Amino acid sequence: MDETPVQLPALGCLELRSHPQRGRGVFTQQAIAKGTLIHISPVLVFSQAEY
Hints:
Layout: E1 6-8, E2 14-19, E3 23-28
Antiparallel strand pairs: 1-2, 2-3
């Protein structure tokens, strides 16, 4: 697997990378102020019949 960190565009300070003990995850390169919005993930709700 490629271990190169991947920059995430949300704030410009986030990256997707591997941690030796915890595996792959999202990490920050600097402190993020309390209350800062870092990601919006829209949710689509479907009924069982629509799925």
